[in-house]
Specification:
One of its GO terms (biological process) is secondary metabolic process. The chain has helices at 12-18, 26-44, 82-94, 128-142, 155-169, 179-195, 238-246, 250-254, 259-273, 278-299, 302-314; strands at 48-52, 60-66, 72-78, 102-106, 111-115, 118-122, 207-209, 218-220, 226-228, 234-236. With 315 residues, the chain is an alpha+beta fold. The strands form 3 sheets. Strands 1-2-3-5-4 form a 5-stranded antiparallel sheet, sandwiched between helices. A 3-stranded antiparallel sheet has the order 6-8-9, with helices on one face.
Length: 315
């Protein structure tokens, strides 16, 4: 392996996430194979790799590159699993409408070649009011009807698995202070999934959802001002997708005087802006934030977990 390949070593964040398993584990093996994979796909797709985007994600590596004609592109490599195939399917369905465009793909190998966006410029670079305006406009473009033969999991099925994990976590000694919020989140999730399509005015057609939509997942582009990246697509009601945006910049919000009132106003404004039921958005925001908080606590990130759970409790 050449010294040049060392430039494309995985970022520390990715190494911390996948490299903590046993030495013979799949995560470590995949990390070790990355320089060779970069070389292989660069040859196959006639790319000139430039640099690794850092800090990058926790499950993939992003390489900024040039195609044979000199245009910019991004090589995204992820440990092969269903996630890459689903991301590819969603991006292909959107076909550049509100989202990054796929140039080439080998989903079975965990490889996507994407159009080059301004990787260091996200909506978080804007003032909050402007960022929210652009975020909601972009999100509306993504809410399209999925294909009849789509491969995506429903919100109900996805959150059923999350709820099961939360019920197990709430019994742990470290979760004692979070149980009231967790219980409310679980009750809301059950009510929200039971109500959907139950003849009570919530029977909106299922939309293709980004799944992880937040300001940091929207990058500046050339053919459009802002484009979404990194979906973990689902199908279901729009309020679920909007919930992550409702808790965006939570650190700043929680440090503000009157944080609880600000949080509730944010939910109301987002719901009204995108014609989503306020109560359903509140419910999904509380559930998704509590689930994320418990996940952080379980991983040992206590400060982050407690912050998210405190925000959920304010709702």
């Amino acid at each position: 392996m050449s010294n040049a390949d060392d430039r494309f070593a995985p970022p520390e964040r990715l190494v911390r996430t996948l490299g903590s398993g046993p030495a013979d584990g799949a995560g470590r093996q995949w990390l070790a194979s990355l320089p060779e994979q970069v070389h292989e796909f660069a040859e196959r797709w006639e790319l000139t790799p430039e640099r690794v985007h850092r800090p990058g994600g926790r499950g993939s590596i992003v390489i900024l590159a040039r195609r044979a004609d000199g245009t910019g592109a991004v090589l995204k490599l992820e440990a092969p699993d269903e996630a890459t195939a689903l991301e590819h399917a969603a991006l292909t369905h959107w076909n550049g409408l509100g989202a990054v465009r796929v140039l080439q793909a080998e989903p079975g190998a965990g490889a996507l070649l994407l159009e080059r966006l301004r990787a260091d410029v996200t909506l978080r670079s804007l003032a909050e009011a402007k960022a929210v305006l652009e975020a909601t406009a972009t999100l509306q473009r993504l809410w399209v009807r999925p294909a009849d033969d789509h491969p995506f999991t429903s919100v109900a099925d996805h959150t059923l698995l999350l709820a099961g994990t939360m019920r197990e976590q709430r019994e742990e000694p470290w979760a004692a202070d979070a149980r009231a919020v967790v219980d409310e989140a679980l009750e809301l999730r059950d009510a929200l999934t039971a109500d959907a399509g139950a003849g009570n005015g919530t029977e909106e057609p299922a939309s293709l959802l980004h799944g992880r939509y937040q300001q940091g997942k929207v990058l500046a582009g050339e053919r459009a001002p802002w484009l979404a990246v990194g979906p973990r697509p689902l199908v279901g009601e729009r309020a679920y997708d909007l919930a992550w945006l409702a808790r965006d910049r939570v650190d700043t919000l929680m440090a503000s005087p009157g944080a609880a009132a600000i949080a509730r106003r944010r939910v109301a404004k987002l719901a009204d802006a995108l014609d989503v039921d306020r109560d359903r958005l509140r419910g999904w925001t509380l559930f998704r934030t509590a689930e994320a908080g418990m996940r952080e606590l379980a991983s040992g990130a206590r400060a982050r977990g407690e912050l998210l759970l405190e925000f959920a409790g304010m709702l």
